[in-house]
Fold:
Amino acid sequence: MDLTENQAKQKAMDLAEDSRQSEWRYPSFVAELFQGNFRWDLIHPYPVQTAEDKQVGDDFIEKTRVVLERFIDPEEVDRTGEVPREALLALAELGCFGIKIPVEYGGLGMSQTNYNRICSFISSYCASTAVWISAHQSIGVPQPLKIFGTKEQKEAYLPRLARGAISAFALTEPGVGSDPAQMTTTATPSDDGSYYLLNGEKLWCTNGPAAEILVVMAVTPPKIVRGKERKQITAFIVESDMPGFEVAQVCSFMGIRGIRNGMLRFNNVKVPRENVIGKEGEGLKIALTTLNTGRLTVPSTSSALGKGVMHMSRDWCRERVQWGLPIGEHQAVGSMLATIAADTFAMESMAWLACAMVDRGGADIRLEAALAKYYCTETSCRIADDFVQIRGGRGYETSVSLAARGEAPIPAERIYRDCRISRIIEGTSEIMRLFIAREAMDSHMRRIMPLLDPRKPLAAKKPLIWQAIKFYVPWYCRQWIPSSAGYDTRHLSGTNSEHLTYIAGASQRLARTMFHTMAKYKQKLECEQLILQRFVDIGTDLFAMAAVLSSAEATLASRGADNDLQDLVHLRYQWMITDIYRELPEIPREDTPETLERIVIGKPESDASEDASVETKAGV
Ligand SMILES: Cc1cc2nc3c(=O)[nH]c(=O)nc-3n(C[C@H](O)[C@H](O)[C@H](O)COP(=O)(O)OP(=O)(O)OC[C@H]3O[C@@H](n4cnc5c(N)ncnc54)[C@H](O)[C@@H]3O)c2cc1C
Structure:
């Protein structure tokens, strides 16, 4: 790698660092989990939606159902690439574009949970229609305005947005996807500072070609931060009727064909200074903060996909007979069905837990949302693939073709095409893993990285060394002491309660291993993506399992004994353990000869007693 590449990489990393939310104002269950602190109290009792709030959501879903059934045929949307205009108008009339906008600004002011329930319902009927609503509200103008907008901006825009003025979020450019440091769209301030001239192109902007109001990220003049020149990215409210705004192309895709998405061009678009959201240079931070809650929609729509697929697969597994048996009774197919059921339960448990955390407040959910997005999109795409498999040739055939010979129009291939995008938008899976790793290691990075900085003089390091010793000696010792906390799991079966203790222990082992690995690789760890990826995958599985246990506890507490549910939980646990082992082969580097156990469990080779307990649990 030559110097220029190194510098470019460093610039990108610096910008990402400057733009991340550095403070942790509230506790995070997942951040604690990666630290070896299993804080069951942060997710238990499982925050079940209140009956009143649920009723509000149920009533709205019913009204939405009427509109969808009246105006939308999802097959027609897929074929024509259009969600009918009258459908969008009827949904706007109902208030669908203002579900999360506060009542004082003309919206419905619903909870995050109800918003995501409604999006999930719409998505399970027609994924393209749900994207119109979620691109508008999950990432479009309302969300950043709610968090960062001034009173004047809220008053000027939120009522319009709530009534159905479509909005969009424009970050990506032809040369800028995961790495916004390369952004080239510029916003040049006028001499008197009263306006900016916006120039550049934005690619794949969902709702963009139909939007009235957009949030656009653009580069403003650089600033000197800590002695270095730093690129400034700023967020602007742009109206599509501003002269110089142009839809350069309407794009078409493999799935969700009814969305309106395109490349936008800005040609000396004059944007008033009052349209800056937050401060100059805060654009990326605004985008990332918006996405923290914005990306909660995808996990809930993914779990709705799982649920829909589970019902359709179950019926087909009973109905279709081959080799003298319903196909579900052949073990290979039955196990796919069971996996879909257990994974769907895990997706639901994670997605609704994260939504409830937003509604309840007092929790930092950046990691929970990221893990839920990563897990649920990966899992739902696998489920869609299994669905095609379970349906055999019919899974590959379009529903229109099936219907043409009188068969049930099950849209397995459309579901498969529609869901694939979820692993790419709002942070690709690879970028989510890097984001999760960075946030999960934040506590260590704040304490250890300054000590490893060769540019820092020893005198400046001395107080930090002392602080680090004071923190790490007790912390490290704690990671070796088995957690004996009496977790409240009174409604879970004995086996499922034991799983909780296992998760607590696994979280300690994960924390120790991460610590050892950091000590070994130091600053180079950020380049060891395969190692980080494994840590993230283990943490994600532990979170999935903890959410499953908490959710099952709540269900069993209200419903009483349910062996099927207990089995489902146990099943999910067993796969988790298998997954952890599959995900952690030896680190594929010649200079890292550690064995799987030493890397995963972070213990000396001689510790045979811990080996034994892990083997029993893993069933290997
Ligand atoms: C249908 C659709 C809707 C969209 N809607 C919007 C929208 O409304 N607004 C908007 O601004 N954008 C939108 N996008 C853009 C979307 O967010 C980007 O496609 C996404 O961020 C990835 O960027 P990219 O496609 O340029 O991929 P790239 O960034 O070029 O990445 C290509 C591959 O390399 C991987 N990769 C990149 N960097 C790293 C790294 N450091 N380490 C490991 N792997 C890496 C990626 O994970 C990916 O697998 C949309 C895209 C599509 C297709």
User: Anything to note?
Assistant: Residues 529-559 form the longest helix (31 residues). The chain has a mean pLDDT of 88. The pocket of flavin-adenine dinucleotide is lined by residues 135, 169-172, 177-178, 204-206, 253, 261, 421, 424-425, 428, 430-431, 434, 529 (CB under 6 Å).
